[in-house]
Amino acid sequence: DVQLVESGGGLVQPGGSVRLSCAASGFPPGVRFRNYHLSWVRQAPGKEREGVAVVSPDGSARYADSEKGRFTISRDDARQTVSLQMNSLRVEDTAMYYCATEPSPVPQPLALHEYRHWGRGTQVTVS
Fold this sequence. Notes:
- By secondary structure, the chain is mainly beta.
- It has strands spanning about 5, 10, 20-25, 35-45, 50-55, 60-65, 70-75, 80-85, 95-105, 115-120, 120-125.
- The strands form 2 sheets. Strands 2, 4, 5, 6, 9, 10 and 11 form a 7-stranded mixed sheet that branches. A 4-stranded antiparallel sheet has the order 1-3-8-7, with no helix packed on it.
- A hairpin with a 6-residue loop joins strand 4 and strand 5 (about 50-55).
């Protein structure tokens, strides 16, 4: 089974930065990591999960409106990792951040229902 392990969360002050990473493994034989969409999703206390950013197999990235210009998603296909650089953090960015992945095609890359494979999350607290 595909496994995703997030890391890099922690406590950060408002205006600060943090970089999250997600390592992927367990892909079926003959299946290439580079064919997968990679997404970061977050869930704040008392709120529903929401898509934050996604990077497609071709390297193109999409962001939720509130994250544009502050967050950068990137992938390293050789290392089978996806990262999320978060700058200018706000208190409202406090959440559990999850990594999710799904092979192409993914018609709606920022939509949560598209993803079957999820990590357990890493907590980011901005305070």
